[in-house]
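Below is a filled-in request sheet from our internal design queue. Each sheet records the structural input a requester submitted and the sequence that came back. We keep these sheets so that new team members can see what a complete request looks like end to end.

REQUESTER: design group, bay 2
PRIORITY: normal
MODE: inverse folding
CHAIN LENGTH: 153
BACKBONE (tokenized):
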């Protein structure tokens, strides 16, 4: 596998994980129900924990600890050997499990096309629609200010 092909696969995986992380658990579950999920085992049962959030003042200042956020994580291995990981903000361990399963299936040559077509692409379209709806709502409330020049005479 060449470097460009590896980078392409890595970029696809990152994009898929972003879509899954931003989607609702119910939406993922509905899409996964349409697939024949392969045999798999939990490498890491879903668990909740905390991560430290770091921040910077002005974007270029010294980093500091902003606070903690709750996350859920899981790891799954398919019977064919592919390993998937799932992380999500909050305490939704079921969602982390589904993300891990989708990640593993997306890496499998047998299931990758089906996961992309039936799970990730519809979720991506739904997120784009929601983003556009929010942008239109925001644009409707936009106020343009202008300054009238007072003539001195």
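RETURNED SEQUENCE:
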């Amino acid at each position: 596998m060449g470097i460009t092909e590896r980078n392409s696969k890595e970029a696809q995986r990152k994009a898929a994980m972003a879509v899954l992380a931003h989607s609702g658990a119910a939406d993922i579950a509905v899409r996964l129900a349409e697939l024949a999920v392969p045999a798999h085992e939990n490498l890491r049962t879903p668990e909740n924990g905390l991560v430290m959030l770091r921040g910077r003042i002005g974007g270029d200042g010294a980093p500091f600890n902003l606070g903690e956020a709750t996350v859920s994580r899981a790891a799954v291995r398919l019977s064919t050997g592919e390993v998937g990981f799932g992380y999500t903000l909050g305490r939704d361990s079921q969602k982390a499990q589904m993300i891990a399963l989708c990640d593993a299936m997306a890496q499998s040559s047998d299931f990758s096309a089906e996961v992309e077509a039936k799970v990730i692409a519809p979720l991506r379209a739904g997120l784009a629609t929601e983003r556009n709806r929010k942008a239109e709502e925001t644009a409707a409330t936009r106020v343009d200010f202008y300054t009238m020049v007072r003539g001195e005479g």
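SHEET NOTES:
- The chain has a mean pLDDT of 91.
- The radius of gyration is 21 Å.
FILED BY: M.R.
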